[in-house]
Every structure is written in C-alpha cells, then in structure tokens.
Description:
Layout: E1 7-14, H1 28-43, E2 52-56, H2 60-63, H3 72-76, E3 85-88, H4 94-107, E4 113-120, H5 127-134, H6 150-165, H7 170-184, E5 211-213, E6 216-217, E7 227-235, H8 236-242, E8 251-260, H9 265-271, H10 280-293, E9 303-306, H11 311-320, H12 329-334, H13 351-354, H14 362-374, E10 388-395, E11 400-407
Parallel strand pairs: 2-3, 2-4, 9-10
Antiparallel strand pairs: 1-7, 1-8, 4-7, 5-6, 8-11, 10-11
Helix pairs in contact: 4-14, 7-11
Amino acid sequence: MTTQQPVWIIGGYQSDFARNITKESLDISDLVKETATGSLSAAGIAAEQVDVIHVANAMGEFYVKQGHLGAMVAGVVPSLSGVPATRHEAACASGGVAVMAGMTDLESGRYDVALVLGVEIERNVPGYVGAGYLASASWVGREGEGQDYVWPFTFSRITEEYDRRYGLQDRHLRLIASQNIAHAKTNPKAQTRGWITPSECFTDDDMVNPTIVGRVRRYDCSQVTDGGAGILLVSDRWLRRNADGIRGPVACIAGWGHRSATLHLQDKLDASADGEYVFPHVREAIHDAFSRAGIDDVFELDGIETHDCFTVSQYLAIDHFGIAKPGRSGEVLDNGITRRDGELPINPSGGLIGVGHPVGATGIRMMLDGYLQVTHQAKGYQVQGARRFGTLNFGGSTATVVCTVISQTAGA
C-alpha cells in the first residue's frame, strides 16, 4: 500500500435537491454556476486561488444535449477562465472519480487548490425516457436486453443472488427504505423531506408500493433528481501555509480506495461464485481506504454515507463494510445499528433514496456530507460526536467503486 499525502476538504456546497431546474426556467449552465460559486463562498476561497477544476457529470449529452462541461465553468464564472478543467464520467461514480482526480493533482504537487463539482439535470424528461438514458451505463447489447427499466432489473438480479447464496428477506429492504426516507425528513436539502409517506409505502402493498421489476418496488429505488454538489480540496502544504486564513473547519480525506470490475453483472457474479463476498472488488476498495486511514475495524467510523441507488445496494454495503458477516446484513438492520441514533449510522442524510440522486453529483454530495458530519455542521441530521466518516460511491452494477474515509485529523 503506497503512502498517502494528506488532502483536505475546506468547505463545499449542495443545491436543494427538491428543485426542478427546468421548471425554474434555468439550465445546466445555471446549475454549474450556482454550484461553483456556492462552493467557493462556503470555503471562503476566491476564484483566483483555484488551481484546477474537476467536473463530474454522467448524462449531460442525453438529458440536456450538452457535453464538454469542464469548459462550462469558465463560461459562467469568468474569474475561473484559464484554470485547467476536466469533465469526468463513470456513471453513478462520476463524482467519486472526479474527487480521485483532484486528489491526485494535489498529491503530485502539480496544484494546491482544486474545485471539484458534480451536476446533473434529470427531471426534464418522462421517467421511461430517462430510464433509457441511464441504461447506457450497463453493457449495452449484452445485458438488460428487452428491459424497459434496466437498473431495477439489474438490482433485482442482485437481490436474487443474495437470496440464493445466503437467504434474504424483503422486509429488510423495506426497512432500509423506511429508514432512509425518515432520515431525510430533517435534512433541509433532501428531495423527499416534504413527502407524505405512510407506513404502507414500506410494505408489499401493490397500490402504494408497486413492483417495478422482480424484487424491486417503488420505494426500493433512489430518486430522479436535479442537483449539484461541490467541494474545495487543498494540499497539506497549502493548508500549512494558509491555516490562519481559513474561514471554517477543515477535514482530511484520510483514506481512499478505487477499484473497477467488468460492466457485465453476470461476469462479476460468476467470478465471485466461490468467494466470501458477492462483490470482492467492493470489499477491496473499502479495505484499501481503511488501510490508508489506519483503520482496523469498521466500528472505528462514526457513520457512513453509502450508495443506496436501490435498497439492496445498501444491504450489500453493510456486509462488504464488515458491519455484518457476508449475507447477514439483515441482522444488523433488525438490531437498529444503522439508524441515525444507532451504533454505526448509515445514510444519516437520507442517502440517494431520501436526499436524491443527481447521478454526476452523488459521489461529491456524499463526501460533502462526510465533511459536514465530522466538522459538526450537518444541520438537522448531525451524528453526535462524529469524528470519522466513511463514504462508498459506485457506478453501474458496482463496475466502478470509490471509497473514502473523512476525518477530523490526518492521523489515525
């Protein structure tokens, strides 16, 4: 394991994920501007101090017919003109890989201050059209053929695989949905915070929680969301030189893991057929982040923001993080360990199911929430006494995986 140079988060911004950008007569350029300027303002950084920009966006060419979003920043924030900028796409892990790129720039010594932002507009087309766009993150032509909703179909297959290997009770998936929607109620920027969700929404009631595909029901799904999120990253050397001028609290990205696997779900399942974990590369990414952060046990974390694109995604995160033995995530849920007031809260923000899932922004939103938690700024959803938070962001059927540990300090 290579040594890691400390990289620090000094602030960031999230838009209100309940908004419909198109209905406000705004477009992607407005969201880029809001996210960039909001992030700079929150961090107390002038545009002239930014050395490099990384923009995460997964579906711009589909939803808004706009690519080349790295260069969009200079067009809407002229004071950032001339700053090198790059757009990153890795499906739902676009935000995670954009952060990895920003960290690499700072660790290499090339730059000292990186603006990393993610934006996505998804509520401007009917749901079935958007589902077709999102299917492009699968292996097109080799899986999901004939399916109108490729991702519910895919994660239903993962549910079935868990059931086949270990046994899985659907009530545990319903519990994850209920928990995340409940957490989001007190998050002032969550898409679902104002939703009326009676208990029947988290049952097998076909009227209020209809089946989408297979084992996936309506409230097992994350949301279709417009939104942006951004963070300012700085090198350790910059922080030491400028510590007296930092306006707010800082947090360290103490560890990271980044792994990839084939796009094709069945190939991944076949490869792990005789293994301990369904997705060993996810476990390896988590192990890499823990090793770099000097963490020996998952319970050294005070909370986790994880990728709950579907409830089974959070279910698999529980055992892959090591909170439960493989296939036994349901026991953890029954014991209340992952509630906001539990021993190890998962998605105290509400996660993708509760907060929303603007695909390109999600990985950055998770890291922003980790920063807010360990600096005790997560208003409405703060985990008391949080010092160290984990994040897990993945794209496709876990084809791209990014895990981080965010800490109050650089040391373990």
